[in-house]
Amino acid sequence: MSRKQHHFKGAEVSCCVKYFLFGFNIIFWLLGAAFLGIGLWAWAEKFSVFLGLIFFLELTAGILAFVFKDWIKDQLNFFINNNVKAYRDDIDLQNLIDFAQEYWSCCGAHGPNDWNLNIYFNCTDSNPSRERCGVPFSCCVKDPAEDVLNTQCGYDVRLQGELDQQKYIYTKGCVGQFEKWLQDNLIIVAGIFVGIALLQIFGICLAQNLVSDIRAVKANW
């Protein structure tokens, strides 16, 4: 009986910390579903170690992204050009490219002529497509007066000179526009990553606190 009383009067696991930590990590599990398998192991064995590992990996990824920014730029260019080639082959891919070109007001990886990589839009004489020497509608400069989307606005547009093209389509490439977007929003992007990093550090501290509470309770048994 005295042993039981000593246990309840001794160190106890903080309920607030325990449940807050549980909810905190559920959020990160939802954001990082790819880590679920590792997370189940980590929950049972070393949870604070798992959070520390994620933080370290993200920090490493951020440093590598800065050091290898030219390589990342080349990979982005390769990715866009490959998707330009397959534009009509996959509706989801097509929607992704259209969204990117509309959002960043761009056309192709480096410019409209990148659409020569696509069999439907290239300017070769042997191309029978009606879209020959054109670009997708998502490259077109939007006319606020138009209520209905003109999906044929990019037809034959690359037969014109570059100055004339600028009246109808975006002539800047998406790689450059994406870089500009990052620079313009650098503080916001950096703030988001710093905020996530601080939340993870906070989670590591909570996990360590929970581990200490559990060890203290076990020591009193």
From TrEMBL:
Key word Transmembrane present: yes
Main location class: membrane
| Localization of this protein | Cell membrane; Membrane
The chain's disulfide connectivity reads: 106-139, 107-123
Q: From what superkingdom does this record's organism come?
A: Eukaryota
- Which keywords, in A-to-Z order, does the entry hold? Cell membrane, Disulfide bond, Glycoprotein, Membrane, Transmembrane, Transmembrane helix
Q: Name one Pfam family in it.
A: Tetraspanin
Tell me which SUPFAM superfamilies the record gives. Answer: Tetraspanin (SSF48652)
The record's section on InterPro entries has:
Tetraspanin/Peripherin, Tetraspanin_animals, Tetraspanin_EC2_sf
Cellular component GO terms held in the UniProt record = plasma membrane
According to the record, the segments passing through the membrane are: 20-43, 49-68, 186-211
Topological relation to the membrane, as annotated: Multi-pass membrane protein
Q: Name the family the entry cites.
A: Belongs to the tetraspanin (TM4SF) family.
Protein name listed in UniProt: Tetraspanin
Organism of origin: Cyprinus carpio (Common carp)
